[in-house]
UniProtKB/TrEMBL annotation:
Name of the protein in its database record: Amino acid permease/ SLC12A domain-containing protein
Subcellular location: Cell membrane
Any one GO cellular component localisation term in the record: plasma membrane
Pfam families to which the protein is assigned, alphabetical: AA_permease_2
GO MF annotation list: transmembrane transporter activity
Residue intervals passing through the bilayer: 25-44, 56-76, 96-118, 130-149
Top-level taxonomic group: Bacteria
Source species of the chain: Endozoicomonas numazuensis
Keywords: Cell membrane, Membrane, Transmembrane, Transmembrane helix, Transport
Length: 159
């Protein structure tokens, strides 16, 4: 996916590099480097391999869950501003039902994220070094991705 996006100019050209068999070398190398860096940083803050696994797992799942919150909100906005737009599927029902579904989805995501951030169900889990790193790392990654996408979108609309 990163290679296809890079070939369209939506991501850095480095991600579009491939070998003679058309395997995505650029995206794989960057992914491997980032994964190694993240595991190395987490290894410095954890005391056991079990804790290391849980923190890396939590970070990965949080990064995968975060985009769904704005996606739910985008669903509501598009249904309000473009109700007649043809779509692959349509959720029937009144507007309050759409808000209910969206709210349930967002609440479920926040609940799942809280379990990942606080595995023992206590707020002091967030104050552990690894817990703080998971929370801060997730927020930093979200901001980096958002700024890259926003910058790319603006450069494409200005040309």
């Amino acid at each position: 996916m990163a290679r296809a996006a890079a070939e369209k100019g939506e991501l850095a050209a480095l991600l579009a590099r491939s070998n003679h068999n058309e395997a995505p070398v650029g995206a794989n190398c960057i992914s491997g480097f980032l994964a190694t860096l993240i595991v190395a940083i987490y290894a410095l803050t954890t005391s056991s391999s079990d804790e290391l696994f849980w923190e890396v797992f939590s970070f990965s799942v949080l990064i995968m869950m975060l985009p769904y919150i704005p996606m739910f909100l985008a669903f509501l906005k598009l249904r309000a501003t473009e109700p007649q737009q043809p779509r692959p599927f349509h959720i029937p029902g009144p507007v309050w039902f759409l808000y209910l579904l969206t709210g349930c989805g967002i609440l479920f995501l926040l609940w799942a994220m809280s379990i990942l951030l606080m595995p023992n169900g206590r707020l002091d889990d967030l104050l552990r070094p690894a817990g703080l790193m998971t929370l801060t790392g997730s927020l930093i990654m979200m901001l980096i991705i958002e700024s890259l996408l926003r910058g790319n979108f603006q450069s494409r609309t200005n040309t």
